[in-house]
């Protein structure tokens, strides 16, 4: 135990390594506003930590790294993240297939969102519209148009 006194207070360090601190201060010392300035908070880490590793605790993963298919998700995502193949992740097909097979066993947890279905319908309609437009006969040339290059 060590004791230090000064500025209207006494500080005791307790515990074998001094890991506990007890501060006793006079009322006058406590009545004044604190002059202590806290450092600015560190930004919360995102998906990729400063050292380049994956932050499995990131809320952006939506709990995918835990749960019944967490291991398969982490294997597939790690493969993609560290992949040096071109295109990136093309060497991870097997791991993503294993993850999808696992997710298919838990449709109540990994069901498709309604938004996914709507997006697929819109994309399908757009692709069909583009295919229909390319199958349409070309419009006849305008008779009064000058030939190209003149």
UniProtKB/TrEMBL annotation:
<dbReference type="GO" id="GO:0045041">
    <property type="term" value="P:protein import into mitochondrial intermembrane space"/>
</dbReference>
<keyword id="KW-1015">Disulfide bond</keyword>
<keyword id="KW-0676">Redox-active center</keyword>
<keyword id="KW-0811">Translocation</keyword>
<dbReference type="GO" id="GO:0005758">
    <property type="term" value="C:mitochondrial intermembrane space"/>
</dbReference>
<dbReference type="InterPro" id="IPR039289">
    <property type="entry name" value="CHCHD4"/>
</dbReference>
<feature type="compositionally biased region" description="Low complexity">
    <location>
        <begin position="125"/>
        <end position="139"/>
    </location>
</feature>
<dbReference type="InterPro" id="IPR010625">
    <property type="entry name" value="CHCH"/>
</dbReference>
<protein>
    <submittedName>
        <fullName>Mitochondrial intermembrane space import and assembly protein 40-B</fullName>
    </submittedName>
</protein>
<dbReference type="Pfam" id="PF06747">
    <property type="entry name" value="CHCH"/>
</dbReference>
<feature type="region of interest" description="Disordered">
    <location>
        <begin position="125"/>
        <end position="150"/>
    </location>
</feature>
<dbReference type="GO" id="GO:0015035">
    <property type="term" value="F:protein-disulfide reductase activity"/>
</dbReference>
<keyword id="KW-0813">Transport</keyword>
<keyword id="KW-0560">Oxidoreductase</keyword>
<keyword id="KW-0496">Mitochondrion</keyword>
<feature type="domain" description="CHCH">
    <location>
        <begin position="69"/>
        <end position="104"/>
    </location>
</feature>
<keyword id="KW-0653">Protein transport</keyword>
């Amino acid at each position: 135990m060590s004791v230090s006194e000064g500025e209207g207070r006494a500080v005791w360090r307790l515990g074998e390594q001094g890991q506990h601190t007890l501060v006793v201060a006079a009322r006058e010392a406590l009545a004044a506003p604190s002059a202590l300035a806290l450092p600015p908070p560190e930004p919360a880490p995102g998906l990729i930590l400063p050292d380049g590793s994956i932050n499995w605790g990131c809320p952006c993963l939506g709990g995918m790294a835990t749960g019944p298919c967490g291991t398969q998700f982490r294997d597939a995502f790690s493969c993609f993240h560290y992949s040096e193949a071109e295109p990136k992740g093309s060497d991870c097909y097997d791991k993503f297939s294993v993850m999808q097979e696992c997710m298919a066993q838990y449709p109540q947890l990994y069901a498709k969102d309604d938004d996914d279905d709507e997006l697929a319908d819109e994309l399908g309609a757009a692709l069909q519209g583009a295919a229909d437009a390319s199958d349409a006969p070309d419009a006849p040339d305008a008779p009064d148009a000058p030939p190209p290059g003149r």
